[in-house]
Amino acid sequence: xxxxxxxxxxxxxxxxxxxxxxxxxxxxxxxxxxxxxxxxxxxxxxxxxxxxxxxxxxxxxxxxxxxxxxxxxxxxxxxxxxxxxxxxxxxxxxxxxxxxxxxxxxxxxxxxxxxxxxxxxxxxxxxxxxxxxxxxxxxxxxxxxxxxxxxxxxxxxxxxxxxxxxxxxxxxxxxxxxxxxxxxxxxxxxxxxxxxxxxxxxxxxxxxxxxxxxxxxxxxxxxxxxxxxxxxxxxxxxx
Length: 239
Prior knowledge:
Helix content: over 70%
Structural class: mainly alpha
Number of helices: 10
Shape: globular
Number of strands: 0
Order of helices and strands: HHHHHHHHHH
Mean pLDDT: 87
Strand content: under 5%
Largest sheet: none
Low-confidence stretches: 1-11, 15-21
Distance between the termini: 67 Å
Radius of gyration: 23 Å
């Protein structure tokens, strides 16, 4: 059977553009999985000094100051993870998540610690007071108030971590913006609270190692839920 004659493409009506390697949904999914696995491994590596210290500490309330000290490397590591996930490549043939992670760590470590250290100290004071509340002689409603303040501080810290990881502000400006967005974008705040509750639930019900092993997907979820905060900050609070 003879083949049909070849014809030249009509320059005025070109066909659909040829799909290049890395454009398909399967390739994009593979790129996302590769990025998540790389960021997770780097998160654990960057946080490893503190994680090792946490596993060596006993489950005693008197160790809370040492827990806060062990958590210091975690702040810059989480920030670098957020930065790498926000700036991740979509092309499977051109992925550099490790390079992006360490760039984010170098750019944001100091700025994040300016938020992370005071927050860790404050939460340590709140947690220490609650675990020794019987010794304070205060009425019971004070414990509920302190617990509410601690929860609000964690939600504020989630917004502040996102802002410090993706934007360059002074620490006091980051703190003000994080407080502003607590009520301004209530759905983003509730989503951050849900992720924190999930991490706490996994720690209490299963093992404290599980939130660490799922840190990258949790950060990706935080980025997704914080999109309104990121968009408004880029639009209204940057040059």
